[in-house]
Amino acid sequence: MKLHRAIVVDDEIFTRKGLLQLMDWEACGFEVVGEADNGEDALELIGSVHPDLVITDIRMPVLDGLELIRCVIGRWTDHPAFIILSGYSDFAYAQQALRHGVHDFMLKPIDEKDFSATLRRLSKRLHHEQQNAQLYQSRRTGELLETLTMNGEDDVVVPAWEQQLRLGEAAHMYYVLVELNDQHPWRPDGNAVPLSLFQ
Predict the structure, then answer these.
(1) Architecture of domain 4-131
(2) β-strands 53-57, 104-107: how paired?
(3) Mapping DSSP to helix (H, G, I), strand (E, B) and coil, where does residue 107 land?
């Protein structure tokens, strides 16, 4: 199974490095593809590596964890899952985090077993969501081809499909129709031509 991409965001270098060393990320279904020590750098990193998961401290300079989550959700429709880490057992933070759809809120110091279980649950959820998204995309692509072949191009329909399929201005789309037919009406017996005739 393909590993999900994760980044770790924490202004405390020992916490960040400790978390990277503590976990068997691959066994939990993840690979760490980046790290940041503040929310602003994390925002830039998210835009460049497109992680499936952001693990972030809640209190950081420049941009805290909750503000980071708000910015990401406001900026991208297809955004990563979030796990918030905090040294503060403040229920208000947990409430705010849950309102933003955060997957989990964990207190420092991190318990390896609890964190592993959280990552495994999230990995299964992400895998299931990605499978559903691929199935949906496949169906939508089939519908697009059917629309184009049956109804021709439409100035309203085609731009909508381009947006849904994320086709940029420079992208080109080609479709090929192939009809498989072994019956040849011009042959008296109607049977397929033997392959030996073409060899």
Answers:
(1) 3-Layer(aba) Sandwich (3.40)
(2) unpaired
(3) strand
Give the percent of the chain with pLDDT over 70. 68
CA distance 68 to 73: 9
Whole-number Å distance between alpha carbons of 142 and 109: 49
pTM: 0.70
pLDDT single digits (tens) 93-134: 777 777 777 888 888 888 999 999 999 999 999 999 888 878
What is the per-residue pLDDT across 8-48, written as a single tens digit (0 to 9) for each? Answer: 999 999 989 999 998 999 999 999 999 999 999 999 999 99
Please state, in angstroms and as integers, the Cα–Cα distance from residue 76 to each residue in 40, 47, 65, 179, following that order.
16, 9, 17, 41
Q: Is 64:11 a contact under the CB 8 Å cutoff?
A: no
| 157-191 CB burial, b ≥16 within 10 A, e <16 | ebeebeeeeeeeeeeeeeeeeeeeeeeeeeeeeee
Q: List the domain boundaries for the chain.
A: 4-131
Side chain identity at 5, as an amino acid letter? R
Backbone Cα Rg of the chain: 25
- In the chain, which ranges are E strands? 4-9, 30-36, 53-57, 81-86, 104-107
Residue 66 backbone zone (phi > 0: left; psi -120 to 50: alpha; other: beta): alpha
